[in-house]
Amino acid sequence: MSHLTSPSEWVAPIVSLLSLAILPLGPVLFPRAYLILLFVYFFVFLYSQVNHLCKFYLTARRMRRTISKWNARLAATCSSASASCDDDTSGYGDLIDDAKASSSGRIESPNFTRGRIVDIEEKLQYYEDPRFMHAFIIPNYCEPEGLLRDTIGRLANHRNAQTHYIIILAMEQSEAGYEEKGRRIQEAFAGQFLQFIVTGHPADIPGESRGKGSNVAYAARYGCSELSDRIDRRRVILTVTDSDSAIPELYVREMEDALNKADNPYHLLLAPPIFFSRNCFEVPAAVRVTDITWSAMVMANLGNSRGIAFPCSTYSLSMVLAERVGYWDTGADAVGEDMHMFLKCFFKTDGQARTVPIHVPINLTNVQTSGYLSNINARYIQAKRHYNGVADVAYTLRNAMRSRTMSWYDKMLVCLKVLEAHMIPVTSGWLMFAAVPLMQFILFPPYPLFAIVKPLENPILTSDFYANLWNIVRLVTVFLPFPLFGTLAVYEHMHRSVDRELLRKVESRRWTNLFDYATLPLAAWLFMTLPSTLACVKRLRKREEQYIVAEKFFKDDGVAARIEALAV
After folding, report:
1. Considering the domain boundaries, does residue 100 fall inside one?
2. What pLDDT, on a 0 to 100 scale, did the predictor assign at position 556?
3. Does residue 563 lie in a domain region?
4. Positive or negative, the Cα torsion across 209, 238, 379, 525?
5. Which string of b and e fits 105-130 if b means at least 16 CB within 10 Å?
6. Which residue range is the domain that position 139 belongs to?
7. Residues of the chain predicted below pLDDT 50
8. Predicted confidence (pLDDT) per residue in 143-155, tens digit
9. Are 161 and 192 in contact (CB under 8 A)?
10. How far apart are CA 65 and CA 74, in angstroms?
11. 508 SS3 class
12. CA dihedral 244, 249, 252, 258 (to 10 degrees)
C-alpha cells in the first residue's frame, strides 16, 4: 500500500481535518473569507443536489418504463397464446388476467405467485436469443448456505440458465468446510446451468488485502481460464454480484440489448440500480432510511450522460475488458472494489471505458441483527467499510495526472465525480449542520462573557456587504435539504412501483413509513459523516483495516440463519 508518498495521498485527510478545524477557527481568524467560503460551498452543494434530483428522477422514470415494457410484453404474449396456454396449464386464463393487470399497474392477486411467473417465463421469449454467455461471480465468506442457494436458485429460474449461464462460486479457503459446502451447493444445482465452478481463494497470497476485491480477482482469473478452453472469450460477460443479490431475468435481457446496440461492447461496464426490499421492514428505521438514501445516490450517479458513473454492488463487463486491464486489483487501495474497477478500466483504456446503466433494480438485503442497538452498530460497521473506498481519491488524482493521452475534460470530470462521492460526505455533514449555528454563537454570543470577536472586528456589524452575505448564507442553509426531500418523494413512488410490478409483492411501503425519515439527521451523521471522516483521517496511518462481513438474517423455510460478523 502506498502511504502518503504523493500529494494525491494527502487530499482526503487534509480535507477532512480542515472541515473540522474551520468550524471554530474560521469565524475567529478569517471571518470575511470564511463567509465567502460558506456562500460558495452552499451554492455549489445546492446546485449539485438539484442536479442529482433531476438525474434520480430520470433514472426512476426509466426504471418504471423498463418494467412496464417487460410486463406489457408478458401480457401481450399471454393474450396471443392464451388458447395453447389453456391447453397446457389449468387455470392459465387467470394468470393471463394477472399479467395484464401487471402491465396496467394494478397490484397482482395473491394467486400470482413466483412459481407461476417462472412457469410463464420458461414458456415464452421476450427478447432475441442471447448472444453472450453470462458468468456470475458470487464472492462469499461464511454466508448461510440457504442464502447462497436462494441467490443461485433465482438465477436457475431464468429461461436460458442451462444454455447460457455459468456460476462461479467464489469461496475463501479460510472458511472451515468451504469445500464440502461448495460441493453441496454445486450438486444441488446439477444440470441447471451450463457450468458451475467453485473456487477457493487462498488466504496467504503476498501483497493482497483480504476482502471482496481479492476474492473476485482470484475467482475471475480461475473461472476465465476454465471457460476460455470451451467458449469464445469474446462472448463471455462477467457479472459480479453479492451473495444476497436477487437478480431478475429482466436485468440479463436488458444487458444483452445494451451490448448488442453498443458500437464496442468491450469498452462497457453495465450497472443496475440497487434496491432494498427483501427485509426492509425487519430493520430499524435509521438503517432503512440510510439504505434508501444510499440507493437514491446510486441511481442519481447512474444518470451521468457521458457514461462516467460508478457501479455499486452488482455490475457486468466483458471478459475481454477484464483481461485487458489485468482483472481486479487486490491491494488495500482497491477496497472499494466496484468503483475501483470502473476507475481502473477507465484509465487503462485511456478513457474509452464507460458505464451503461441498466434500468432494472437489483434487490438486496439490509444489514440485520437480532437486537436494535446491535443492528445500528452493524450498519455503522458496514458504513465504515464502504467509506474505506476513499483510497480511490488518491488513485484517481494520481492516474489523471500521469495520463498524457486522455482528454483533459474527461480527466477533470472523473476527478470531480470521485471527489464529490467521497469529499461531500466528509464536509457537508459538518458544514451544513454546524457552520451557521457555531458562527452565530461566536460572532453573536448570548452573553458578553462568551465574546471572542470584538464588535469592531465583526465584519457583519461593520460592513453592509458581509451583513447581506451572512443573511443569504443563513437563508440558503434552510433550502439545502429540499432537494433531498424531493428525492425521497420520488423514491416513495418508485419503491411502491417496483415492489408491485417487478417483485410482485403485496406488502410495500405505506404512508406510515414516512415517519422513518424523522431518523434521517441521526442516520446521516452516524452512517455518513462520522464514518467518512474517520476513513479519511485513517489514511494518515499505515495499518491496514480489517475487512468485516456485514451481519444479516436469511429466513430459510421459517428458520433464520445468520451471517456472522467475521474479520476476513
Report:
1. no
2. 53
3. yes
4. positive
5. eebbeeebeeebbbbbbebeebbeeb
6. 1-81+124-568
7. 1-2, 83-126, 557-568
8. 889 989 999 999 9
9. yes
10. 14
11. coil
12. -130
Question: 412 vs 56, 104, 196, 390, 402, CA distance in Å?
Answer: 23, 44, 42, 18, 13
Single-letter amino acid, residue 566:
L
What 3-state DSSP class applies to 563?
strand
Angstrom distance (rounded) from CA 259 to CA 256: 5
C-alpha dihedral sign at 135, 136, 138, 144: negative
Number of domains in the chain: 1
C-alpha cell belonging to residue 410:
474527461
Decide if 303 is inside a domain: yes
Kindly give, in sequence order, each residue whose CB lies less than 8 Å from that of residue 267, ignoring residues fewer than 6 positions away: 321, 349, 352, 353, 354
Indicate which CATH number applies to the domain containing 557.
Answer: 3.90.550.10
Measured CA to CA, the distance from residue 419 to residue 394 in angstroms comes to 10
**Domain assignment present for 87:** no
**pLDDT per residue over 433-485, tens digit each?**
899 999 999 999 887 777 888 888 899 999 999 999 999 999 999 999 999 99
Residues in contact with 322: Cβ distance below 8 Å, sequence separation at least 6, in sequence order: 220, 224, 238, 328
pLDDT digits (tens, 9 = 90+) for 237-273: 999 999 999 999 999 999 999 999 999 999 999 999 9
What is the pTM (predicted TM-score) of this model? Answer: 0.87
